[in-house]
Specification:
The protein has helices at 2-19, 23-34, 40-52, 58-67, 74-83, 161-174, 189-192, 194-202, 219-231, 241-256, 270-282; strands spanning 122-131, 136-144, 150-156, 182-185, 206-209. It contains 11 helices and 5 strands; from the N terminus they run H-H-H-H-H-E-E-E-H-E-H-H-E-H-H-H. With 283 residues, the protein is α/β, with parallel strands linked by helices.
């Protein structure tokens, strides 16, 4: 029994001699190699979040980690993201898509200073462009001003009334629309057109439009497009219209509405934010 207990010591002694190192150095290096990096699992978790949400900053990543069960503060997350070059530095740009020179009636701004405290009280509408490999397509979107949820969207090769109507019809088909809903947009011809206005009037919606020369008056829609482009469009090169439509639809429905944390919603996704509202209304 004694010989068997001494055998490992003899093996280590011989190993140290062959390496020309002493046993104290050997045991110190062995302990160091077996000591786990305290941040290795956290790094993996952060990288997983960034892979899914490329536009997340360190604060939003911190909230995502806390939701996943981590006990971590934003300073530690910021340090790791800096070390791993995971901080996003994405470009910002604004390209106007509004043609307000038209013969149609324009409407006053009904939402300026309005506090929206429930879903389907105010919808905000806007249009942006999406670059393909050799041309542009256009995206119309409708957002619920309370939850920031995209309630309707439509992608088209033409920037016309049918583009905006497609997004509106999707929203009307999926939401609980009641008389008095405020529809807010810019003064673009698509939203002022006879067909679009008549569709809004058919559901007894109130029409609201932002002031001329103030594209940021419709800030919630602009914020949505910024997120969409930074976290989806700018990261890919769509080859075809169909590819753009599939990817953008997947991002809106599966990521933006249901997973992405919104700082303005207390770091909840829009779907969860609306569910919390519905639950509060029951009690």
């Amino acid at each position: 029994m004694q010989a068997k207990q001494e055998q490992p010591q003899l093996s280590i002694r011989h190993l140290c001699r062959s390496l020309q190192v002493n046993r104290r150095w050997y045991y110190a290096r062995l302990a160091q190699s077996e000591e786990a990096d305290p941040d290795v699992d956290l790094r993996d978790a952060i990288e997983h979040i960034i892979l899914e949400f490329a536009g997340y900053g360190y604060r939003r990543v911190t909230h995502a980690l806390v939701r996943a069960g981590w006990s971590v503060n934003h300073k530690r997350v910021l340090r790791i993201m800096r070390e791993e070059s995971l901080l996003c530095h994405l470009k910002r740009q604004f390209v106007p898509t509004t043609d307000s020179h038209h013969p149609f009636q324009v409407y006053p701004n009904l939402v300026k200073g309005l506090q929206v405290d429930a879903p389907d009280v105010v919808w905000v509408a806007d249009i942006t462009y999406i670059r393909l490999l050799s041309n542009f397509v256009y995206l119309a979107a409708l957002l619920d001003a309370y939850s920031r949820k995209c309630v309707g969207w439509n992608l088209s090769k033409r920037i016309d009334t049918q583009l905006a109507l497609g997004a509106l019809e999707q929203a009307l088909a999926t939401r609980d629309v009641r008389p008095g809903l405020i529809h807010h947009s810019d003064r673009g011809v698509q939203y002022a057109s006879t067909a679009y206005v008549k569709r809004l009037q058919s559901v007894q919606a109130h029409i609201s439009m932002s002031a001329v020369g103030n594209p940021y008056d419709n800030a919630k829609a602009e914020s949505f497009f910024k997120t969409l482009k930074q976290e989806e469009v700018y990261l890919k090169q769509y080859q075809t219209f169909e590819e753009a439509q599939t990817n953008i639809g997947q991002f809106i429905e599966d990521v933006y509405n249901t997973k992405r944390l919104h700082s303005s919603l207390g770091y909840l996704p829009p779907v969860e934010f609306e569910m919390a509202y519905a639950q509060d209304m029951r009690y």
